[in-house]
Records
---
Amino acid sequence: MTVEKNDDVCEACGVLVELGSVIHEDDNVLALPISAPSLEQAQSLAQEYTQRAKEKYPDCEAEQVTQGLDAGIALVLNLRFSCTAERLIFEMSLR
């Protein structure tokens, strides 16, 4: 991720934030780490997240990276959205 100096300033409700320091235009990949006792369980959960993302953002691309651990399976689900706003909105909907 690159950090650039941006002189645009936004004031809302007494809060001062430099635009570009919080939201960067190329920050559109959400990496979700998933741990499970088996690969099937990890993939099932990854599929649920992928389905939720694609329902709202059909252009979303998903990639799974699997890592075997002593305590089970770790899978990282990378969801690539078409823009940063989509990634942020989806990420906030998970909370």
---
Amino acid sequence: MAIGGWLTALDQERQRREAHIKSQLGEVYSPLVSIRLQIKAKSELRLKLSIAAGAAWSAKFAGIEAPMRKKQISERDSQAYDKLQNYNNR
């Protein structure tokens, strides 16, 4: 009888320890995983926007040979692209 009680006590202690560890994991690591997933999603979006902006910027100059015309386009439209670049460099 004593051995059965002792084994039950050991099993209950193990269960309490496991429950405590699961609780800690849920309280600490779940929010960290969520934050990491948010950062990853924002990084992927930033990369997609950067690629699209680069393609759009290059398309503005496609077929234009005159340096003055390129300068006009650059001065007119560069502010929006500069904002994106500055945001990416933060």
